[in-house]
Design goal:
CATH architecture of the largest domain: 3-Layer(aba) Sandwich
Largest sheet: 7 strands, mixed
CATH superfamily of the largest domain: Dihydrofolate Reductase, subunit A
Pathway: Cofactor biosynthesis; riboflavin biosynthesis; 5-amino-6-(D-ribitylamino)uracil from GTP: step 2/4
Structural class: alpha/beta
GO biological process, one term: riboflavin biosynthetic process
Number of strands: 10
Protein name: Riboflavin biosynthesis protein RibD
Strand content: 15-25%
CATH class of the largest domain: Alpha Beta
Number of helices: 9
Keywords: Metal-binding, NADP, Oxidoreductase, Riboflavin biosynthesis, Zinc
CATH topology of the largest domain: Dihydrofolate Reductase, subunit A
Helix content: 25-40%
Shape: elongated
EC number: 3.5.4.26
Radius of gyration: 21 Å
Length: 292
């Protein structure tokens, strides 16, 4: 199984073929399963379409077409004769619809950065039974443990967190993923603080930097998406108070909006609004549905 570790390193197809070669099973390989259409251009790495054409693989299953016109065309190249491969796209098979949607969801953040020049932006909003975002005095949250786990899984999956200076001053949040194991050897998670008035405490910024965050400050919310994309962020999560969330909503900066509402009885109610195939779909093993 091949995994693309970082930009500039061999893609998943090349990694899988290399592993098969090193373990002595490459000549037995007949089927390749890929989430994204194999690239068909030479960038920082050679084209994966050529690597597969030059392998014993006969059939290539593709989860999603490449939205980037610069890299697209791998499926067509794989089919070219002589020596063409059988290529199957999941979205052409009715019984593979769910899996095809999963692939689209997985790739949505990457596609957002490549095609729109901005990361996919998810908003997480927690509400009490009265519809308020403000926890009772002395508490940091009011949602259930399962909802907290979901929030930490989302935080772990994203490349960046966007918050407001008001939230920092009120709560001095740590933005950890302590309720789930974080990814090992990951780059520092970016943390953008929207601070128009220069109120961010120096000691909090220093503490967060020492905790492994790359702390960035912005006086203009509208400039944040491009700032993050320039640093390679595919997926950003907004965690803030009512003022920041109102500003994000007014500017239309969100791609999906996760609302966790505490109920008087029973589990929290979790709803998702999305403007596309949401990557949150991949976290739907939670008891509450995350179907967009």
């Amino acid at each position: 199984m091949g995994v693309h570790p970082h930009a500039g390193q061999p893609h998943a197809e090349a990694m899988a073929l290399k592993q098969a070669r090193e373990t002595g099973v490459l000549e037995q390989a007949r089927v390749a399963l890929v989430t994204l259409e194999p690239c068909n251009h030479t960038g920082r790495t050679p084209p994966c379409s050529e690597a597969l054409r030059n392998s014993p693989v006969r059939t290539v299953w593709i989860g999603a077409s490449d939205p980037n016109p610069q890299a697209a065309g791998g499926a067509a190249r794989l089919r070219e004769e002589p020596g063409g491969k059988t290529v199957i796209l999941l979205n052409t098979l009715p019984d593979m619809t769910d899996l095809a949607r999963d692939c689209q969801a997985l790739l949505a953040p990457f596609a957002s950065r490549v095609m729109r020049g901005r990361p996919w932006i998810s908003v997480k909003q927690a509400l009490d039974i009265h519809g308020s975002m403000i926890p009772p005095a002395g508490q940091k949250t009011f949602t259930s443990h399962s909802s907290l786990l979901l929030a930490h899984r989302l935080r772990r999956a994203t490349d960046a967190i966007i918050t407001g200076a008001g939230t920092v001053l009120a709560d001095r949040p740590r933005f950890t993923v302590r309720h789930v194991a974080d990814h090992s050897e990951r780059k520092p998670r970016m943390l953008v603080v929207c601070d128009r008035q220069g109120r961010l405490p120096d000691d909090w910024r220093r503490d967060m930097t020492q905790a492994g965050f790359e702390v960035l400050v912005s006086r203009d919310l509208l400039s944040v998406p491009a700032m993050l994309a320039e640093r390679g962020a595919n997926w950003a999560m907004v965690e803030g108070g009512p003022a920041l969330l109102d500003a994000v909503a007014e500017a239309g900066l969100w791609d999906d909006w996760l609302t966790i509402r505490k109920e008087t009885d029973g589990p929290d109610c979790i709803t998702l609004r999305s403007r596309g195939e949401s990557p949150l779909r991949l976290l739907r093993e939670n008891a509450c549905s995350l179907e967009s």
